[in-house]
Design goal:
With about 200 residues, the protein is of the alpha/beta class. It has helices at about 15-20, 35-45, 60-70, 95-100, 105-110, 120-135, 145-155, 160-165, and strands at about 10, 55, 75-80, 140-145, 175-180, 185-190. Helix 2 packs across helix 3.
């Protein structure tokens, strides 16, 4: 069991063709690129020395494969709430293409027509937080950039628009915790890619 219960280790999946191209990849279930698989292995080398009370993964293959390549596929529990934001009509588009239609559009403020609102995604993130809190130790989560940013925002009690200010690279590692003295929610590490040699 972890000596620091309640920490959430957030692992974004490795690179895909769409993440490389800057396309919004919600429910489209695409694989990792060969480079994405290599990035996942490097993340796994960093994580394998740790013990986790629970491991959760999105059901989408890019997150599940990252989880497997990191060495946690055999113990991970699939959580549907960890699936990426449903981009609806904006699925597969780059932000510049969306803003050509809607110049003032912001995902964490406006959501997506035919998809999810920030509130919808926040509700899903809120259902994950008690699983972290009640796990009895550190928790490892494999999921997606925008979903993990929303999860961080809800952990920190930020507004959804504030979560938009935190970027996440493929195969990055972030850690959420609690201050040892006050118990306040804290970000201990964010978008750490040191293991990737970037």
């Amino acid at each position: 069991m972890s000596e620091r219960p309640g920490h959430a280790y957030l692992a974004r999946h490795g690179e895909t063709e769409w993440s490389l191209a800057g396309k919004h990849t919600g429910r489209t279930d695409i694989p990792l690129t060969p480079n994405g698989e290599e990035l996942a292995r490097k993340l796994g080398a960093r994580l394998r020395s740790r013990t986790f009370a629970a491991v959760f993964t999105s059901p989408l293959q890019r997150a599940r494969r990252t989880c497997e390549l990191c060495g946690f596929g055999g113990v991970a529990r699939i959580l549907p709430d960890l699936v990426e934001w449903d981009y609806g009509d904006y699925e597969g588009l780059q932000s510049a293409q969306i803003r050509a239609r809607q110049p003032e559009w912001r995902l964490f403020r406006d959501g997506c027509p035919g998809g999810e609102s920030p509130r919808d995604v926040g509700v899903r993130a809120d259902r994950v937080i008690p699983l972290i809190r009640d796990a009895g130790g550190d928790v490892l989560i494999f999921a997606h950039g925008h979903l993990l940013r929303m999860l961080m925002g809800r952990w920190m009690t930020l507004e959804p628009t504030d979560a938009a200010r935190f970027s996440l690279d493929p195969a990055s590692l972030s850690i959420l915790g609690r201050d040892a003295h006050s118990g306040d929610a804290v970000i201990e590490r964010w978008n750490d890619t040191a293991h990737l040699g970037l």
